[in-house]
Design goal:
Number of strands: 5
Largest sheet: 5 strands, parallel
Order of helices and strands: EHEHEHEHHHHHHEHHH
Strand order of the largest sheet: 2-3-1-4-5
Structural class: alpha/beta
CATH architecture: 3-Layer(aba) Sandwich
Number of domains: 1
Distance between the termini: 42 Å
Number of helices: 12
Radius of gyration: 18 Å
CATH topology: Rossmann fold
CATH superfamily: P-loop containing nucleotide triphosphate hydrolases
Strand content: 5-15%
CATH class: Alpha Beta
Helix content: 40-55%
Length: 252
């Protein structure tokens, strides 16, 4: 089976839970490598035949299949690769409050040993760390940027820019944008929207447990205030885009 849908972002935005729930629909064939293949970001050199081998052979009960990678939306080359190789695919985006997302991302990198800077220094040095990385990836398609993948705490929250990139390649009908917080607090209602978007019969799943829930230290008030000010213009730009019917007005 060839993927009909992709959950393309964002990191620490509930993509693992969302894909797990979608894959439990009786008419969705699961990906053989569980959540996804990372084909359009880090495994593109393996080729399209390798990619399609990661999916099930057809069965009468399966109508569609798909996968997820939170890096697809942010990766400099992935959206173009998807548009070229899966031009008819439907894309699902789950966006989390960028303040909470940045903090969660930073804490996650600490836990897995990919970050050793204090949080304020990591945020302050992000532009320096990422400088020229996206450009190099475009020049050298085989180059994988450690910095872009692990230390892009702020830039991954530039949601409007990433959505504009996707809209330049896909029709609006191919894109569904969800709010991560609503997805996790109103799972059944949000999944009803997903089923309609994917052309699937309505089902009510049981046992919708969240995956990869991080339990981290509380964010310092000074860091939270700095992030809120940083993301304010990016949020305003996002709110003005079509299809965005939510806001992060109150932050816990």
């Amino acid at each position: 089976m060839t993927p009909d849908f992709l959950v393309v972002g964002t990191k620490r935005g509930g993509t693992s839970s969302l894909y797990d729930w979608i894959s439990r629909h009786p008419n969705v064939a699961p990906c053989l490598t569980r959540k996804g293949t990372h084909y359009f970001d880090v495994n593109h050199g393996r080729g399209f035949a390798w990619y399609t081998s990661r999916f099930e052979k057809p069965r009468p009960e399966w109508k569609i299949t798909g996968e997820a990678s939170p890096y697809y939306m942010f990766h400099p080359l992935a959206p173009e690769r998807i548009a070229e190789e899966l031009p008819g695919a439907k894309l699902i985006v789950s966006l989390r409050d960028p303040v909470a997302r940045a903090w969660s991302h930073y804490q996650r990198e600490l836990v897995i040993g990919c970050e050793d800077l204090p949080v304020d220094e990591a945020f302050a040095r992000e532009a320096e760390r990422l400088k020229g990385e996206a450009e190099r990836m475009r020049r050298e398609p085989g180059y994988e940027s450690y910095e872009l993948r692990h230390h892009s705490y702020l830039h991954r929250g530039h949601y409007a820019e990433q959505l504009e990139h996707l809209y330049s390649l896909f029709s609006p009908e191919q894109l569904l944008v969800l709010q991560s917080e609503a997805l996790l607090s109103q799972a059944h209602a949000q999944l009803s929207v997903v089923w309609d978007f994917l052309g699937l019969p309505q089902v009510r799943l049981q046992g919708l447990n969240r995956l990869k829930v991080g339990r981290y230290d509380a964010m310092p008030a000074s860091t939270e205030k700095w992030l809120e000010e940083y993301f304010a213009p990016h949020d305003d730009k996002l709110y003005s885009m079509p299809g965005i019917d939510f806001r992060w007005e109150e932050r816990a």
